[in-house]
Amino acid sequence: MTEERRSRSTEAFYGRRKGKPLRNQQVESIESLLPLLKVDLETPAPTPLAALFPADVKSIRLEIGFGGGEHLVHRAAENPSTGFIGVEPFVNSMAKLLGAVKERELMNIRLYDDDATQLLDWLPDECIDHIDLLYPDPWPKKKHWKRRFV
Description:
Blueprint: H1 24-32, H2 34-37, E1 59-64, H3 70-78, E2 82-87, H4 91-104, E3 109-112, H5 116-122, E4 130-132
Parallel strand pairs: 1-2, 1-4, 2-3
Helix pairs in contact: 1-4, 3-4
C-alpha cells in the first residue's frame, strides 16, 4: 500500500520578500534570466532529477536560504559536475545571485524563489545528495517555533 505524501504548510513563512529597490540590470535579470533557471513546480519532477540541468551533472545539491548567493556560486563554480538547486524567497538576494550566475556563465544552477517546503514536497524521494542549510535557526526564541525549518 502506498501512502500519500503529506504537504507541509507554508503559513509559517515570516520575513521580508523585498528590500531596497532593484537596479535596472537586476530587474532585467529577474525578468529574463530567472524564468530560464526557475524550477517549475507545476510540472512533475523529472526522473532523473539531473535532467533539470543542461550540463551533465553527476550529483544534486540543494541550498536553502542562499542569501546573496556567494556560497552557492562558489560551490557551483568549483563543482561543474554537480547540479545545484538554490532556494531564496528574498528578491534582492535572488537578483544578486542572478548577476553572478550571468557573469560566470554557470550552467549547473537552478533556482526556486519561494518557500523551500513547496520545493521539498515536489522533489522525488531520495534525489538530493547534499543539502546546505547554513543558518538553520535564525529565530532561537521558543515562541518562534513555527518559523524554524529544522
